Structure formats: structure tokens, C-alpha cells
Amino acid sequence: MRQHTVVIAQLVHISGPLKGEIQEFLDLEIPIGRHPSCVVLFPPEEVLISRNHAKIFREGNTFRIVDSSTNGTFLNGKRIKDAALKNGDVITLGEGGPKFSFLSEVKEDVPAADLPKTPAPQRLNADPAPPVEVPREREREKPEHVGREQREVPLVIQYGPTLRSFKMVPVTIGKNPACEVMLDHPALLDRHAEFFFSGEQYWIRDLTGSNVVRINHAPVGSTGLPVNMNDEVLLAPEGPGFRFLGQGRFVECELQPEEKSTGQPQEAEPQTGKEAEASRDRKSLFKKYFRH
């Protein structure tokens, strides 16, 4: 059977009218804008975006983005006309406009019959369907012993404009500079969580002792839980949150307001004095991290 090399471009929409969608493309050209011919199509009322705003071009195994808009295209916060793309880059259409991150993957020796087709966009923030919950719980039954020995498997974590890649796990995430992934986020502890690999699955465990790390709002505990495709990993009630895309790839996903506590809407209790001031400071700091 004839073998192929497949290069996939993936766009993960962070904000804007397509927020929460994941789009994958095999095309050599990916036009972006409001014109009906664009494959990344924005609604007509999104006037900050030009009809033909920009194009992503594949050149071999690499990608470039070319701007053709009135209001500009920004790559990691810097306005560009023509620039090379790398994994983890964040693209903004117009100043303060819709934002998405870019990822690419090269697959070698893929049989022609197995060539992937561009899937329909998937919702990052979609709630798990109730019928799936029972079998997922069965999937998550813990073995008697879960090993956390070193394993040579890939792990990619995208947070904002940064991308961290590892060839070996376990990997620890937290505020301490000694962690492999150091995030200066107000909700994180020095050693907050650990990604590891066991039984042909990626796992995450809570290092805080407070059961704040969750998968789809279920606490992972100190022994950990396996992560399945499209699971949402929440490191703390205030975030940050990540979506698991398979093959060791975790991308940041912005939380909806009702998800930033226990995963359920709650009526806010009245605050006074120092409590109200501290709450405003926390919200301001949280917004600052997601703007970047």
C-alpha cells in the first residue's frame, strides 16, 4: 500500500466568535476572513476582520502567514505582514480582535486509506455528554498500582504565547523555578501538579493536598487520573485550564465564568471592605494573564 507524509495545521480558537473551536487542515493554503470562500470563516458582522484578512501557506513541512487586511494581523502581539509560524504561536486578527493559537504536526508513512479528513470544528468548552459519563468512569478505574517512573514519551504544553516541549515524563508544573513548567499564576502552588504516563495513557496528579486539580470537574487526587481526548484539565478553580488534544498535547483554554469555581453556577455572596478589594485584585490579575 502506498505510504504518505501528512502535514496537519491545527487552529485552536481562544477568543472571538469561533472561540472554543478546533480546526484541522491538510490544505496548502488556509484563507481567513469574512468572504464565503475562506475556510476559516468569520460572520459578516465581525467588521474588524477584512473579507480576505490573511492566509496561512504551507511550504513543505513549514507554515507562513501573510496579512492582506486593513486592520492588521498580529503574531504574538506584534503586527506582521509576512511571517513564519511555529507551534504555540498566537495569532490575533485586528487589534483586540479574535485570537487563535497555531499548532502543526507531521505524520510519516501514513497509508492512503488512513489519510485524515478535516473534521468538523469541536467545542473546547462543551460539557461532557451525560451518556458518556458512566463508561468514562469505568475507563478511569485505577489499577492497583500506578507507576510514575520515567518514560520517554512526548509532552507539549501551550500556555498563552509560550510552548514547552518535553521528551520525557514525569513533568511537574507550579510556581517554583525548579518545576519543569514554571507558571507564575496566583492560583498555583510551588509544586502544583504532575503529568506522567502509565498504562499507555497520560495521567495527571494533584501535588497540593487540597484536591484542587480536576479533570472535567472531577478531582484527580494525589494518585492521579488518566486523561482522555478532549478532557479539560483545571489546575485550580481560578484556572489555568487546559484541553488535551491527544499525543501528549495540552493547550490552554479560557474558562467560562460559571466554570471558575466548582464547575457549577453559584450565587455570589455579598462582600465588604477588604474582601471585596481582594476579590477585585484577583480578578484583575487573572484577566491580565489571559490577555497575554
Describe the secondary structure blueprint for this structure.
Layout: E1 3-15, E2 21-25, E3 29-33, E4 40-41, E5 54-59, E6 62-67, E7 73-75, E8 78-80, E9 82-85, E10 90-93, E11 99-111, E12 122-123, H1 130-139, E13 155-159, E14 162-166, E15 171-174, E16 181-182, E17 193-198, E18 201-206, E19 214-215, E20 218-219, E21 225-226, E22 232-234, E23 241-246, E24 249-252, H2 273-291
Total strand count, please? 24
Distance between the termini: 47 Å
- What's the main sheet like? 7 strands, antiparallel
> What percent of residues are in strands?
35-45%
Low-confidence stretches: 116-147, 257-270, 282-292
Helix fraction, binned, reads under 10%
Output the helix-strand order.
Answer: EEEEEEEEEEEEHEEEEEEEEEEEEH
Q: What class, by secondary structure content?
A: mainly beta
Shape: globular
Number of helices: 2
Q: Return the average pLDDT rounded to an integer.
A: 77
Task: Give the neighbour order of strands across the main sheet.
Answer: 8-7-10-11-1-2-12
How would you portray this structure in words?
A seven-stranded antiparallel β-sheet has the order 8-7-10-11-1-2-12, with no helix packed on it. The protein has a seven-stranded mixed β-sheet with strand order 14-13-24-23-22-19-20, with no helix packed on it. A five-stranded mixed β-sheet has the order 4-3-5-6-9, with no helix packed on it. The radius of gyration is 20 Å and the shape is globular. The protein starts with a strand and ends with a helix. It is built from two helices and 24 strands. The chain has 292 residues and is mainly β. It has helices at residues 130-139, 273-291, and strands at residues 3-15, 21-25, 29-33, 40-41, 54-59, 62-67, 73-75, 78-80, 82-85, 90-93, 99-111, 122-123, 155-159, 162-166, 171-174, 181-182, 193-198, 201-206, 214-215, 218-219, 225-226, 232-234, 241-246, 249-252. Residues 116-147, 257-270 and 282-292 have low confidence and may be disordered. Strand 19 and strand 20 form a beta hairpin.
